[in-house]
Design goal:
CATH topology of chain A: Thiol Ester Dehydrase, Chain A
Number of domains of chain B: 1
Shape of chain A: elongated
CATH class of chain B: Alpha Beta
Oligomer: heterodimer
CATH superfamily of chain A: Hotdog Thioesterase
Order of helices and strands of chain A: HEHHHHEEEEE
Distance between the termini of chain B: 32 Å
Strand order of the largest sheet of chain B: 1-3-4-5-2
CATH architecture of chain B: Roll
Radius of gyration of chain B: 17 Å
Distance between the termini of chain A: 20 Å
Number of helices of chain B: 3
Shape of chain B: elongated
Number of strands of chain A: 6
Largest sheet of chain A: 6 strands, antiparallel
Number of strands of chain B: 5
Strand content of chain A: 25-35%
Number of helices of chain A: 5
CATH topology of chain B: Thiol Ester Dehydrase, Chain A
Order of helices and strands of chain B: EHHHEEEE
Number of domains of chain A: 1
CATH class of chain A: Alpha Beta
Largest interface: A-B, 42 and 44 residues
CATH superfamily of chain B: Hotdog Thioesterase
Structural class of chain A: alpha+beta
């Protein structure tokens, strides 16, 4: 386990998974997300309001991670892609079969607009000592995900806290 | 379904003072709520749509709401209050417990700070608490830009004029 922990710790602050989103930001998902939270903000539903306030349609800021979640299936791809890959790498590396997200912080920059193609990269920031919670025994980790648009403008930085664990026997 | 507060037209920074309470929002959660939110956020993990998986692998009593879906509810709650000119600058939340089908979520918010930065942008800092019954499920702190006067629009701010 020491070697595996050292391997995980060696990744701290290194840019990983620098990639472009698999699809453009699109309004269908915006409307589905708004419907899921019953969000009636006219900025997203009324193009005249969007034009007046933001110069055109924008996506809800809280949807930022949506634009990078891989398709569940793609022809020719043998395994399903996973969002926030560093999180899943840590589960495997540290032999922690279960994991949950326990916290999230996002700083928002330029608005995201339909048609944008965003890019991202992930940074592991920390891995905790072993902890025991009511879920089980494991480790907390912090991952930053940085987002930019096709004009290389800062769009957001998302910080996730995850807890990988083994359930109590 | 939820009870939807009035979406205000343009809340100004001068309308807000520390200690102000944001009207509470109740949301009844169904299996559909959780599955719809998971799919809307492109989160295909089975604990958000497969009860057997959630019970056997996560040890929970049912499927539960994913974090990105909770984030969209926090945004909705904040902008129901601010109106469309409110622009989220920062949002942080910590999940303490899970939200399950059959729960009623209650969002409550209070203004912790009101300020104007050196670029002239007006900010309200809030704490939002999500509870189910007597259980605190999530705690959120948010920073949202509000117009400083009737002519100001936080969405016009870019680069050095936007410092969330």
């Amino acid at each position: 386990m020491t070697d595996r922990l050292d391997e995980a710790l060696s990744l701290i602050d290194r840019a990983q998974y620098e990639e472009e989103g698999e699809f453009d930001v699109e309004r269908g998902y915006v409307f589905t997300s708004l419907a899921a939270a019953e969000n009636g903000n006219p900025l997203f539903w009324d193009d005249d309001v969007a034009q007046e306030i933001t110069g055109g349609p924008v996506a809800p800021p809280s949807m930022i991670s949506v634009w990078f979640r891989p398709h569940h299936w793609v022809p020719g791809r043998e395994t399903s892609g996973l969002p926030l890959q560093v999180h899943f790498d840590l589960k495997e590396m540290l032999e922690l079969p279960e994991a949950v997200m326990t916290g999230n912080e996002v700083v928002f920059g330029e608005p995201v607009r339909p048609g944008d193609r965003l890019s991202t990269r992930q940074f592991l920031r920390s891995v905790s000592d072993e902890k025991t919670t009511k879920l089980g025994t494991g480790r907390f980790w912090v991952i930053d995900v940085e987002y930019s648009n096709q004009r290389e403008e800062f769009v957001a930085r998302e910080t996730w806290t995850g807890f990988g664990y083994r359930r109590q026997a | 379904m939820s009870t939807t507060p009035h979406v205000s037209s343009k809340l100004l920074l001068s309308d807000v003072t520390v200690g102000d309470e944001v009207p509470a929002l109740d949301v009844d959660v169904s299996t559909t709520t959780i599955v719809l939110g998971a799919l809307a956020s492109r989160d295909w993990r089975p604990m958000h749509h497969d009860r057997t998986f959630a019970q056997e692998r996560n040890g929970t009593r049912d499927i539960f709401m994913n974090a990105p879906h909770q984030a969209t509810y926090f945004e909705r709650y904040l902008t129901d209050w601010s109106g469309p000119h409110g622009r989220l600058g920062r949002m942080k939340f910590r999940i303490l417990a899970s939200v399950f089908p059959g729960d009623t979520m209650t969002f409550r918010g209070v203004v912790d700070g009101v300020s104007t930065d050196d670029a002239g942008c007006g900010w309200a800092d809030l704490t939002v608490t999500l509870t189910v019954g007597d259980t605190t499920v999530s705690e959120c702190s948010a920073r949202i830009a509000l117009p400083v006067d009737a002519t100001d629009n936080p969405w016009d701010r870019h680069n050095e004029d936007w410092k969330p």
